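Example for reference:
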Amino acid sequence: MAKDIKKISINKFEQALNNDNIITERLIDTEDVAIQIKKTITLPEMILFVQEVVEACVDGENGEYIPEAYDFAIRSAVLTHYANFAMPTNLDKQYWLVYNTRAFEQVINNINEHQFNDIIRAIDRKIKYMLDIMSSAAVSKIHEVINKFNDIAETGEKVFSNTSADEIADFVSGISKLKDIKEEDIAKAALDSKIGAK
C-alpha cells in the first residue's frame, strides 16, 4: 500500500507567490504618463471583467446580441482592470482611445497570459449560455402562441360546428361593432347571432 502523501501547508504554498504583481511603466508615445499594470487580477476583478464584457454584448432585457461590441469591450476591460486607466463615458471617445493608442498592446504584453485566456473562455461560455437562454425563451414563446391559436381554433370549431355561413357572417358583423372586446362579449355575440338566426 502506498504511503500517505504529505500535504503542503498553506504557509509553505504561499512562499511560492510572486509578490511583484504590479509593474510601473511609462505609457508609450508619452513623456511623463506612468501606468501601473497588474500582472494578475483578483477574483472579484475577474468576475467584474467577465460581467462587463458579457453585458456589452448581450442585452438580456431586449433579447439582443451585439457581437461587434466584443473586442472593444475586452480591450476596454483590459485597460481598466489590469491597468489604472479611466475611460470616458462617451463610447466614441472611448473607442478612439482604445484603438488609436498603444496602451492595450502595452498592458496585454505584461499580464498573466493564462488568467487572461481563462477570462476569455469564461466570457465566451457565458455569452453562449445567455444566447441559449434567449433562444429557448423565444422558442417557448412561439410554442405558447401556437398553442393559443390551436385553442382558439378548437373553440371556434366547437362554437361553429352546426352553424351556416350566414350565421357566421352575422357573428362577425356583431363582433366588428364591439369596442374593447372581451371574452364575454364574444360569447354574447355568438349567442345573439345563433338566436337571431332561429
Remarks:
- The first helix runs from residue 10 to 14.
